[in-house]
Design goal:
single chain, about 150 residues, mainly alpha, 7 helices, Reverse transcriptase zinc-binding domain-containing protein
């Protein structure tokens, strides 16, 4: 069995609680779970790159993306926020996929963007990186300081 198939099997087992040998009912089609979020994910990545004033060609996969996600002045607060951004973005995409798959709910692109920025601000505050006290302050700070 290939590594990709083993990882996919672990994901399916986690989703459906099938780590035991008993058969579980699948409440969601696996193909639906794997369906990419067209438009939503690309719009979020584009917004982040514009926010930080970065021109970049996206790598081909998540591992490559995380390996090359470095920014200038990475010891500054804006640099630390930059480093947490891909994790935050992937978290938001995962939440949106779950809402679409399990709850039949879908945020608009502007709502997804706002949600991402709000979560990023919350994470920055939790990491004590909040020299800004508002979302607009954080946006201004990141676009100027990185």
């Amino acid at each position: 069995m290939s590594i990709a198939r083993r990882i996919e099997k672990l994901q399916r087992d986690f989703l459906w609680g099938g780590l035991e040998e008993e058969h579980k009912f699948h409440l969601v089609n696996w193909q639906q779970v794997c369906t990419p979020l067209y438009g939503g994910a690309w719009e979020l990545w584009s917004m982040v790159l514009i926010l930080f004033g970065i021109t970049w060609v996206m790598p081909r996969g998540v591992v490559d993306l995380l390996n090359c996600w470095h920014g200038p002045r990475s010891k500054s607060e804006a640099g630390k926020i930059w480093k947490m951004t891909p994790h935050c973005l992937m978290w938001c995409i995962w939440q949106e996929r779950n809402d679409r798959t399990f709850n039949g709910e879908e945020k608009s692109i502007p709502a997804l963007k706002f949600h991402l920025l709000h979560i990023l601000l919350s994470w920055a505050k939790a990491a004590h990186l909040d020299s800004s006290c508002s979302l607009s302050d954080m946006i201004d700070y990141c676009s100027v300081c990185l």
